[in-house]
Design brief:
This protein is α+β, with helices and mostly antiparallel strands and 123 residues long. It has a single domain, classed as 3-Layer(aba) Sandwich (Trna Endonuclease, Chain: A, domain 1), CATH 3.40.1350. The protein has a six-stranded mixed β-sheet. Strands 4-8-7 form a three-stranded antiparallel β-sheet. The longest helix is centred in the middle third of the chain and has 11 residues. It is globular and about 35 Å long.
Length: 123
């Protein structure tokens, strides 16, 4: 996957260091990829519209809660969300700035509404 290879380069990881979570944890893991040392977790979201169509994009609160409750206490863990829009691929790291993002509900489930202008585009 092109976006994963780009993120590996940005983070100084070698290609192939990331493993599909489905291989180890089955199809219902909160994230799509993780590094062999467990220090990097990635969720990839594919969108069928351009990044400019909406002011925000969403991530389920359950994914953020899992990272904060289970992954971050391990120490040294980084979590990234990658968004494949029709006009490019963007990413954002989960950090304390997310506390300022709007929290809302879609179909009865809590989601973070991430401002698209906070996303970084892969070049």
């Amino acid at each position: 996957m092109k976006c994963i290879r780009a993120l590996e380069c940005i983070l100084g990881r070698s290609e192939g260091d990331l493993v599909s979570t489905e291989e180890k944890y089955g199809p219902y893991c909160h994230y799509d990829f993780f590094s062999g040392d467990g220090k990097l977790w990635i969720e990839h979201k594919q969108r069928s519209f351009p990044s400019s169509q909406y002011a925000t994009t969403v991530v389920g609160k359950v994914k953020v809660d899992y990272a904060r409750r289970i992954l971050f206490p391990r120490g040294g863990v980084r979590v990234f969300f990658i968004f494949g829009f029709t006009d490019g691929t963007y990413y954002i790291e989960l950090d304390n700035s997310w506390d300022s993002f709007q929290l809302g509900e879609i179909r009865g489930k809590a989601h973070y509404f991430i401002p698209v202008d906070k996303l970084i585009k892969f070049e």
